[in-house]
Amino acid sequence: MFRLLFLVPLLLSASAAAAAERIATFSVENMTCALCPITVRTAIERVSGVEEVQVDLESKTAVVVFDDAQATVEDIVEASRQAGFPAALKE
Fold first, then answer.
1. Number of structural domains in the chain
2. Is 0.85 surpassed by the pTM of this model?
3. Residue 1 within any structural domain of the chain
4. Alpha helix ranges (H) inside the chain
5. Of the candidates 27, 19, 15, the residue with the CA atom closest to the CA atom of residue 67
6. Are the C-beta atoms of 88 and 77 separated by less than 8 Å?
7. Quick one: which of 26, 49, 67, 72 could link to 87 by a disulfide (CB 3.0–4.6 Å)?
């Protein structure tokens, strides 16, 4: 029993860390060539807290894995917009 109580704080802190990870899909405008997704990915990757970005030219989307304690949807949208590719969260 004592050992189980010792592990509870560890389990709670691990689940709290995992809870901060979020996956969001964005529609991205103005992508017309093979270099556009690279530009969008690079811009979004520069946002602090972004862990992974996958951009698809054909569907004009970006799937972003980020720590929502460090980055917001608005931060990601703004990074893409500043790169010349307006983005919006897909619901």
1. 1
2. no
3. no
4. 2-19, 36-45, 73-82
5. 19
6. yes
7. 26
**CATH number of the domain that 81 lies in?**
3.30.70.100
Tokens 């093979």, residue?
34
pLDDT tens per residue across span 12-31: 444 455 558 999 999 999 99
44 CB neighbour count, 10 Å cutoff = 26
pLDDT at 69: 95
Cα 52 from Cα 23, distance rounded (Å) = 9
More reliable by pLDDT, 1 or 89: 89
Judge whether 53 and 87 are in contact, CB under 8 Å: no
Tracing tokens 């307006």 back to the chain, one arrives at 86
Are the C-beta atoms of 17 and 69 separated by less than 8 Å? no
